[in-house]
């Protein structure tokens, strides 16, 4: 599974981008992959990470089956893909 696609999804869903400097990528282990969305105007934030079951299910999908796996992911309920985790304070190192 390519976890960089999570950044692509965050960019598509929020309009954030590396070029606008409102999206940043940080190296992380598989278990440490998480996405924090923070509303600047209010400071309200939410952090999500792929669930352990999701990572196990899609970890080693053969390249030839990626398109079908992607369609399968699109049909899953959010709760099967992500779990909410505590959000770090703004500006905190990860």
How does this structure look, described?
The chain has helices at residues 4-14, 52-58, 66-75, 78-81, and strands at 35-38, 45-50, 82-85. The longest helix is centred in the N-terminal third of the chain and has 11 residues, at 4-14. The chain has four helices and three strands; from the N terminus they run αββαααβ. The radius of gyration is 14 Å and the shape is globular. The chain has a three-stranded antiparallel beta sheet with strand order 1-2-3. The model has no long low-confidence stretch (mean pLDDT 88). The chain is α+β, with helices and mostly antiparallel strands and 94 residues long.
Largest sheet: 3 strands, antiparallel
Structural class: alpha+beta
Which range best describes the helical content: under 10%, 10-25%, 25-40%, 40-55%, 55-70% or over 70%? 25-40%
**Beta-strand content bin:** 5-15%
| CA-based shape | globular
Give the H and E element order.
Answer: HEEHHHE
What value does the average pLDDT take?
88
Number of strands: 3
Which strand order spans the largest sheet, edge to edge or round the barrel? Answer: 1-2-3
Number of helices: 4
Termini separation comes to: 22 Å
Spans where pLDDT lies below 50 across 5 or more residues: none
Q: What's the alpha carbon Rg, rounded to whole Å?
A: 14 Å
Short description:
This protein is of the alpha+beta class.
Question: Key terms for this structure?
Answer:
94 residues, alpha+beta, 3-stranded antiparallel β-sheet, globular
SSE layout and pairing:
Blueprint: H1 4-14, E1 35-38, E2 45-50, H2 52-58, H3 66-75, H4 78-81, E3 82-85
Antiparallel strand pairs: 1-2, 2-3
